[in-house]
Design brief:
13 helices
Length: 328
């Protein structure tokens, strides 16, 4: 194809792309990054065609004027494409203030089932132990009960720990390891058609209900509740989210629809990752609060209760409200 015919056929596209460049270059970077996905797709398609035209012009030996004109447009497009790449920080913030809460709301049936599997056994065992205190030892051995009583003794130097326990920093690392281990256990066993996730949700719920009821019955309610009320907003919510992610895996195996089970499982795992990442972040926050806030006896109980109420309200508001405008 001769250069004149090539230019006549392709110049309308070049002019259209140049107009896009002028418009995008006149806007701020945040406005460009906030543009629609369709607009980005259209810009990328035009940029790809223009790059091909430049390669053709070079390979066919067209004039230097045309090659320089196309090269300039490709260079401007490349700069905009590069500038559109979000930084790690902006990606993380977009995830925390949009992707995660929207994913949790989207998968609310799994979150609801996970919550019920965790909370109902806790409430049930609590009522049962109130009537029959000896039922406590059907959930945990006597030596574990004694260790818990020691940890929440109002005279203890730090609540929620054994006497002569390690430093706050050491306990911080221990809490992270322990909490994430429980979360991963609840999530990963969902691969067993969801039965594993349900089992560990019920088991952890029974432990929570039994310990809470026993601490209240022996008069350690103030130390125990003031200890768990703060970090519990993050830790308990993270366990529920881990369970929801595991149940999502199990549901994909049981009900793959028209897809092969392997494909359904792969898609479910990809959708569950945001909840697991979110649960991990929440568990790190919980571990920090547990080590440096919850276990400190010098903070008045009333202050811990107020802080705990604020944290619980904040967690609920976050998952219910954050990201709705952007999602709309």
């Amino acid at each position: 194809m001769k250069q004149n015919a090539f230019e006549a056929a392709r110049r309308p596209l070049w002019r259209q792309f140049e107009a896009q460049l002028d418009r995008l270059e006149s806007t701020t970077r945040s406005d460009r990054n906030g543009g629609s996905r369709e607009a980005l797709k259209n810009f990328t398609a035009h940029y790809t065609r223009l790059s091909r035209d430049l390669a053709l012009a070079r390979s066919r030996g067209y004039s230097q004027r045309l090659i320089e004109e196309l090269n300039a447009l490709v260079g401007r497009g490349h700069n905009l494409m590069y500038a559109r790449r979000p930084s790690f920080l902006s990606t993380a913030l977009a995830y925390l203030f949009g992707g995660l809460p929207r994913r949790v709301r989207h998968d609310w049936p799994f979150v609801l089932v996970s919550s019920m599997a965790f909370l109902l056994p806790a409430i049930g065992i609590g009522y049962a132990i109130t009537d029959e205190p000896e039922l406590l030892y059907s959930v945990m051995p006597p030596e574990q009960v004694y260790a818990l009583e020691t940890m929440y003794d109002p005279g203890a130097e730090h609540f929620g720990r054994e006497r002569q326990s390690a430093s706050d920093f050491s306990m911080f690392g221990f809490y992270i390891q322990n909490n994430i281990g429980i979360s991963f256990q609840v999530f990963a066993t969902g691969i067993l058609a969801g039965i594993g996730s349900l089992f560990y949700l019920i088991y952890n719920g029974l432990i929570l209900g039994a310990v809470t009821t026993h601490m209240l019955s022996i008069g350690y309610g103030a130390t125990f509740l003031s200890f768990v009320v703060g970090h519990g907003a993050f830790e308990l919510t993270a366990i529920v989210l881990s369970g929801a992610a595991g149940l999502k895996l199990g549901y994909a195996l049981i009900h793959p629809g028209q897809r092969p089970r392997s494909e359904a499982l792969k898609q479910a795992a990809g959708a569950a990752v945001p909840m697991i990442v979110g649960a991990t972040i929440m568990l790190v926050v919980a571990a920090f609060l547990e080590a440096f806030w919850s276990s400190t006896r010098f903070i008045p109980v009333e202050v811990k209760y107020v802080a705990g109420a604020m944290l619980w309200s904040g967690v609920f508001a976050y998952f219910l409200l954050v990201g709705r405008l952007r999602g709309a």
